[in-house]
Specification:
Layout: H1 62-74, E1 77-81, H2 88-98, E2 105-109, H3 119-126, H4 137-145, E3 150-155, H5 161-174, E4 178-183, E5 194-197, H6 203-216, H7 226-234, H8 239-246, H9 254-267, H10 277-292, H11 295-304, H12 313-320, H13 330-339, E6 343-348, E7 351-356, H14 358-370, H15 374-395, H16 401-424, H17 429-438, H18 440-445, H19 449-460, H20 467-483, H21 487-504, H22 507-523, H23 527-544, H24 549-564, H25 568-585, H26 589-604, H27 608-624, H28 628-644, H29 648-661, H30 673-690, H31 692-703, H32 707-715
Parallel strand pairs: 1-4, 1-5, 2-3, 3-4
Antiparallel strand pairs: 6-7
């Protein structure tokens, strides 16, 4: 597709709507139809999309599944509603997995999202879309979905209902082949919506569920045991309640469980007199599980509610320890909460992490607020994630760079929660500015420019008490705006940063400000000024003893300025030095841009094989960091190398693939005389060899590739030159400009990231 953003990335595992997940290993809610091996199909295999694989038995719900499938056939918007814990998420996932739209099923988990302004971003992220431009994410979504036939599952939207309703209404109006399956505790209220109220499980299915979850813990119970049946009746067949009860069967017999359950029902009530019975029952059930916990377990449950998403043991130990819960006891208490299905455990690329279902978290938050301890715990949560961001910023310039990228990805919900706390508290503005600035590597290096712009713009609007924190936020804001091609806000931020830094004699802020100003001059075709500013900034860095990815990217930018002015040997010398320092420190992100410049030099020297080898390394790193600009630059230059090797058709395909990616980067910076010339040379050569019709056909073929497909295609070539390969240098007919003043594109939009 020409928008170049149709890449399948694994979606987050379902957090559910309060349904328990004992034994699932993924926080997956329960209830459903068919168990593995019972003759039913196993949905989700070989499908396009991001639905997670089911990890435990799906019990009951045969009739509901059929009815929901028929509703999806008859309406473009179906909303599954019901009480928390009734199994909405699991039923919707099962039904979605059985559907087969041409462009797949894509699930958006909204339970951890707090800010309605990020709903569009969440949908983009679930679809695997990346857009570095200043255009609204809604525009990107509409462009992506306009020509696709897919099913979009919006799960856990109830706290964002207004924002979701607005988005869904517009998507359905402008994407005629889109179907939406919404999952929440209330309707969206959009025209054409078909409601699908979900009732609790029937007694027979509830007993089967209880027995199945008990069996996962090594406990055998009979589904026809009168005590089992009575427990399920008392719990109204709500899957979450059944699972919480099953979690106690390791210690209690069904009969003893029934006795304790009776006691707790008399003790606890939930909701007011106007609340639905199921809502009162659910709260009673969670309250009963809470009462069965030991005091330390109840305390940890309440304190863990401050986490907005998955968390690791170290975070829990820091945030939740103290005042009745020593840090050394947190692991044991956390293990008990796991055993009782209050928490679930996940294996992730960032290591073992723990997740609390949303309904369970909300119950704990009520207890935390009642104890008057919520604000203290939120401050501890903030402190942990400010510290984490500081550590990650330092480790970005190290062999742990890839680990840092994965860690930050996993921690985003909690980092957002910390940012929101800092930027809304009366005395926290300086910490918000520091945190938003310290995450520059996440915004610029890991493909999150739009989100970074949001937090940074909010941060600099506040009057903080620490000038250095504000200066940091300003130069990072300028950098992000430059990368988005938004010159005016970038200039405004740089000017304010320069004035403040001069007044406060902040040598470090002046160095970064001068660096960013040089970067802006470079992408604006003012090469002499760019060189002057970048040399001065690098000298300031040397005086300060500053060495990090930002400094090295500034040297890559200087190399580009030299190359644009015709001094290729000096550009190579500068980038070889960057390459050496990066390899000494295990740094790969800035190194990728140095390799890009060296690859261009190799092509100019008539060594396409060497150029390809460098570009494959460059592209692998850039794509691994979700760096869209670095990826598209490498693909563009690979197209030029490919036509030099004699394969004009494949070069045209790669140009088409890059053309589909560029709109998400921002074309305004790349239409200049310097940046566009290599693309024009590749196109002219390929057209000459293929003819206009064949060239355009190949370009269309490349434009239809998703980003993952395009990168895979670019990387799989051997690089062996074809017979009759074109020489790297241009012939007389190509010499419309001075030698070496037309590199394929500059790394500078990713250059000059702001270190702490």
């Amino acid at each position: 597709m020409r928008d170049g953003m149709h890449d399948s990335t694994p979606g987050s595992r379902p957090e559910g709507d309060g349904t328990g997940a004992s034994g699932s290993g993924a926080g997956t809610p329960v209830d459903g139809a068919g168990t593995p091996g019972d003759g039913t199909d196993e949905p989700g295999r070989d499908r396009v999309g991001n639905l997670p694989v089911e990890l435990d038995a799906f019990v009951g719900r045969s009739a509901e599944l059929g009815a929901l499938a028929r509703a999806l056939d008859a309406a473009r918007l179906v909303t599954v509603t019901g009480a928390g814990g009734v199994g909405k998420s699991r039923l919707a996932a099962r039904a979605a997995a059985r559907s087969a739209p041409a462009d797949g099923v894509w699930r958006v988990e909204l339970a951890a999202l707090r800010d309605p302004r990020f709903v569009d971003h969440a949908v983009m992220e679930a679809l695997g879309l990346t857009d570095h431009t200043t255009r609204p994410p809604r525009e990107t979504l509409l462009g992506h979905l306009a020509r696709r036939r897919l099913l979009l599952v919006l799960d856990g939207f109830e706290h964002l209902a207004d924002a979701c309703a607005e988005l869904v209404a517009e998507l359905l109006r402008r994407a005629p082949d889109l179907t939406v399956l919404a999952v929440g505790r209330r309707p969206l209220g959009v025209a054409g919506e078909r409601l699908f109220p979900l009732a609790p499980l029937a007694e027979e299915d509830a007993a089967r569920l209880l027995a199945a979850r008990a069996a996962q813990q090594g406990v055998t119970v009979a589904t026809d045991d009168p005590a089992v049946r009575e427990v399920c009746r008392r719990l109204d067949g709500i899957p979450l309640a059944v699972e919480l009860a099953a979690g106690r069967l390791r210690a209690l017999s069904p009969a003893r469980l029934l006795e304790r359950l009776e006691d707790r029902f008399r003790l606890l009530t939930g909701g007011g007199p106007d609340a639905l019975p199921r809502h009162r029952t659910l709260r009673t059930t969670i309250g009963w599980s809470h009462e069965l916990c030991a005091p330390g377990e109840r305390l940890l449950w309440a304190r863990l509610s401050v986490f907005a998403g998955p968390f690791d043991l170290e975070a829990a130990e820091y945030v939740c320890s103290g005042d009745g819960l020593p840090a050394e006891d947190v692991l044991d208490v956390l293990g008990e909460l796991l055993a009782q299905s209050v928490l679930t455990r996940e294996e992730t690329p960032a290591g073992v992490r723990y997740r609390m279902l949303d309904t369970v978290r909300a119950y704990g938050a009520d207890w935390l607020a009642a104890a008057g301890d919520a604000d203290r715990l939120r401050r501890r949560h903030r402190d942990w994630y400010v510290g984490l961001a500081t550590w990650c910023e330092l480790e970005w310039f190290s062999p742990r760079q890839a680990e840092v990228a994965g860690r930050i990805e996993a921690e985003l919900p909690n980092l957002r929660e910390a940012l929101e706390y800092c930027l809304t508290g009366p005395d926290e503005a300086h910490l918000g500015q520091y945190l938003a600035g310290s995450l520059w590597f996440c915004w610029a290096g890991c493909g999150r420019l739009a989100e970074g712009r949001h937090w940074l713009a909010r941060a600099v609007e506040l009057d903080g008490s620490h000038e250095q924190s504000r200066l940091k936020a300003l130069w990072v804001l300028a950098y992000v705006a430059i990368l988005q091609g938004d010159t005016v806000p970038a200039l405004a931020a740089l000017e304010e940063c320069r004035r403040t830094a001069e007044r406060s004699a902040s040598a470090r802020a002046l160095a970064y400000t001068e660096h960013r100003t040089g970067c802006l001059a470079l992408v604006s075709d003012d090469m002499e000024r760019a060189e002057t500013l970048l040399r001065s900034a690098l000298e300031r860095y040397r005086e300060l003893g500053e060495l990090n990815s930002a400094v090295l990217m500034g040297q890559v930018e200087l190399a580009m300025a030299r190359a644009f002015q015709g001094d290729l040997p000096d550009a190579v010398r500068l980038c070889e030095d960057v390459r050496r320092v990066c390899e000494d420190h295990g740094e790969r992100w800035t190194r990728a841009y140095a390799l890009y410049v060296l690859a261009f030099a190799a092509w100019r020297k008539g060594k396409p094989g060497q150029a390809r080898e460098l570009l494959v390394d460059c592209l692998g790193s850039a794509h691994g960091f979700r760096d869209l600009l670095g990826s598209v630059l490498a693909v563009e230059l690979l197209a030029l190398v490919t036509v030099a090797e004699g394969d004009a058709a494949e070069a045209a395909v790669l140009q088409g693939a890059a053309g589909g990616m560029w709109p998400s980067v921002g074309l305004r910076l790349f239409g200049s005389v310097y940046y566009n010339a290599p693309h024009e040379l590749c196109e002219a050569t390929a057209r000459n060899r293929l003819g206009d019709e064949r060239y355009e056909e190949c370009v269309r073929q490349g434009a239809a590739l998703g980003r993952e497909e395009a990168v895979a295609r670019a990387l799989r070539r051997t690089g062996a030159p074809s017979p009759g390969a074109l020489p790297a240098q241009r012939g007389p007919e190509d010499r419309g400009r001075a030698d070496m003043r037309q590199p394929a594109a500059s790394p500078t939009r990713k250059g000059g990231e702001t270190a702490g």
